Every structure is written in C-alpha cells, then in structure tokens.
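Two records follow; treat each independently.
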Amino acid sequence: MKKSGTAKKTNPKLWSQAKAEAKRKMGGKHSARAMQLATKIYKKRGGGYKGKKSSSNKLKKWSREDWGYTGKKGESRYLPKAARKLLTPSQKAAGNRRKRKATAQGEQRAKYTKAERAAFLKATYKKKK
C-alpha cells in the first residue's frame, strides 16, 4: 500500500466542524485559504495528527510566505509579503487597476502585470545551484 503523504486527523468529527466553520468564514467556498483556517481552528480546539506530512506540503509553504493584499481586500492583488515589498507603489496601483477591471467584468482572476509576475517569481522560487 502506497503512503499518501498526508497525516491522518485524530478527531475526524472535530475536523469536519472546523472545515465547516472555516468555509462559512471564507464565503462558503472550499479553498486553500479556507483549509489553512480550518487547520488553525482544528489545532486550537485540540485536534491532532497521526503520521507525517509530506515534505512537499504546499499549504505549509504558502502559510510561511505571509500572503496579503496590496491594497483594499477584493479590489487588489493577493501576493506574498516578499513580492509585495519588491513592487513600487505605481506597480501595485497598475496591478490593482487590472484586478478591478477584471472583477468589474465578472472575472475572478486577472493576469499579473509583468512587474507582479517578476516579483512573485523572485519571491517564491529559490534558485537551484
């Protein structure tokens, strides 16, 4: 039997409650951010894990990157802190304009500007030696 690389929750009922609460707080949708919040709620209420997490756990990496908005929530970009620091105020404004335009057209996502993409890649990927 192949291992999944996912630690098993020791209290499945508590996990279900934590997931439901997190999804409610995140607008009723399942997302990586909602599952990050569910994990926080689950651990805070005494939930635990049995086994080891995969070394390629992306949610853990994402949590360490300190993601946040470049401006007002809902009309600005959601980027890691390191990427936000690399952008100038005018570059952030250009990205926010693109995001607002896409949102006004009913789209959930908008393509990164060249500056945002470069900052994101520089902030999130380590160079291989």
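The next record belongs to a different protein.
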Amino acid sequence: MAAGRPKRTPSTTGRKPRILVAHWMIAPDSKRFLDGVEAYARTAGLEWDLEALPLYQVETMRLALETQRPDGVITGYDSAEVNSSLAKTSMPVVFLRHGLPEPPPRPRLTVLRLDFGETGRAAARHFLSRGGYRSFGFVEATRDPEWSRSRGDAFRDAVAATKLPFLRFSAKDGTYQASVASREEFAALAQWLSSLPKPAAVFAATDERARDTLLSCREAGLDVPRAVAILGVNNDDFTCSHIFPNLSSVALDQAALGRAAAEELHRVMLGGPAVRRDCKVAVSGVAARASTAAPSPGGRLVAAALEWIDRHACDGANAAEVARALGVSKSLLDLRFRELGVRTVLGALTERRLREVRQRLAETNNSIEEICSACGYGDSGGLRRLFKRRYGLSMSAFRRSEANARKVR
C-alpha cells in the first residue's frame, strides 16, 4: 500500500461499507481482534459498519452472507456450507487459516496462513528464565490441529539447547473443546505427567488444555508448580483465574492480527490482487500466575538430587550418599521428594538403575551377571526378581523380545 493516507473504500450505494467479521470471541483477549480491525479503519479514515459473529455460528454466518450481502468479510470458517455461500458472491474475503483446509481459489479471496510459532518460543523463554527444570512437556489440543502442532514444535525447538528430555502428550481423536475430554484421557494425562522427570515445565496448547493438565496433576498427586509448572495460551481470565493455583498463559496480540486482516481486506476492496501468504501471529506477553512460579528451593534441591542420581546411581550409591553429596540430611531430602509428589530417593535410584539394565539387555551381549555388576547390584538374584516384578518378564525373556523387535524393524 502506498505511503500516506489510504483511499476510502468505494461505496456504490452511498451507505457505509458493511464488514462482517467472524472470529473466535470466547475470551476478552480474542475480542481485541475487533479492536484491531476498528483501529485500522480509524487510522485509514474508513467509515466501516462492523458486524461481529462468533466463529462457530455457521447458520447465522450463511444467513448474513446470503441476505445482508456485506461489502467485505473477515473469517476463519472452514465449513462446506459457508464456503458454498461465499462462492456465490464476488465480495472481498480475508480468510484466516489456523491450520484448517484452505477454501478453494476464487476472485478477491486473500488467505492469511497464521503462523503460531512465536507462541511456543514465548513459552520457552518464560520457563527458561526461571530455570531449575529437568524436563519439558507439551500437551496437544484435542484433535491436535495444525496450529497446536506448530506451537508444540516451536516450543520443542526453543528448549532443545538445554538437552533435557522433551515429551509430548498426543491428544485423542475428538473435538477441540477440552470440556468434552473423556475420563480415560484425563487418566492417561495423569499417567503421562507422572512419568516426566521432575520438576517439569509443561506448555499446553490452550488455556483449556492447561486446565486439564492441572486437574490431571491433582489426580496424580503432583504439586503445581513445584513438581509440574503449567503454562497455557490465550490468557482467558475465566479459565486462568478461577482455579487453584491460577494458570499462567501466553497472550496473543489479537489486536495486531485484527489490524493485519483489516489492512488486507481494505487492499482487496480497492482492487488489489488476491494473495495467499504467511502471517506471523505476535505475542503481547506472558501473564505469569501461580502455576509457573519459579521453582522453590525444595524443587531445586530435588532437581539437583535427580541429576546426581543420573550420574552415580549405577555406582551402587544409596539414599544416604545422595543426601551427603548435596550437603543435606536424608530426612530433609526425603521430605522434599514427598512435597513434590515425586518418587522417593530410593525409588529414583532404582528407576535409574533399571533403565540402565534395560538398555544394556537390549543393546549389548553382556551376561546378566556382568550387567548386574555394572548397574550397581551386588546380587543378580535380587535384580532378576525385581526386574520380573516390575516388567512382567524375566531378564532373558526381555532380551529375546528386544532382539525379535529389532528383526521386525
């Protein structure tokens, strides 16, 4: 667009141009999208009459398109019914693609492919500024649409330099709304959260999924934020502030997105060519609440203990030696583990050794006695019994199953 005051949108009827805006209107932060559209119109000297519809009102949208005949449309609908109604018109349309299938090409249709990567990078910066975590996790939106995956991938890439574990909770098939998540999914999420090395930093695709994560932490007996810190997206005050502890959230710059969409619509209304291009969705900040409070001294102590255990468990160390290496009493260390809902010091030592045992059984030809000695066990009989009790297979049977699996691969 040329510099200076933009041209006014032409009107053939003498009335103000009617602009239909269909957008997610489920949170105050989302409603700022309309503020951005109005701000652009004021700056450009446009006298637009705006009509807003929540994105999910498909029949209302069809009626507005077919009877009111707006002069321009900003939308993110992907339904066949709405696309059919749009195809019958020549009105300028800006389609906000959140990862949904793009509408078929037509004159005066601009598609903005929304890139939500900055959301994941902002989440990573928030957690990394606090430090003290031993793993990172991402909870997908139910149905895991493309925008959810892009948030998770950007978060994963941004924390990769820490070389700490990154795990993803894959959503079940179903609708986007977290309110209909099944009881089975909550149980699976609780189990997944329990498996993360603690303290863990968990980023959820939406505030609703962050709430699911918090409720699943309760079910698993995990303290938030000391064992699991949780961060959502959209900064919906109702979702984030009416649960204990309050949820931290990444706030999208919806006003900037509204301005960008309005500018594209104005350009097309003036006769500019239709385009399909990427549009980065900016972040206005992170609303930090109790769910991502900086790790407590107790959380940092547990993180240091687990790091020491990773290095020395297979040397035959016991719980008292872990405490001594950290300069605290065994009773204090046990207390800090219990506060975080993490397994005991002895349990952490056992889990680390068994992980090494499994790896050696799968990847080496060492005898069971050699593996027993290398992993800090003085009694092969005791290890054999523990292994079978934990995994339901003898060590020899586990080794055979791993060998067969490699042949299949």
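Discussion point: The chain has three domains: 18-114+254-279, 117-252+287-292, 297-408. How would you locate this feature using only the token line?
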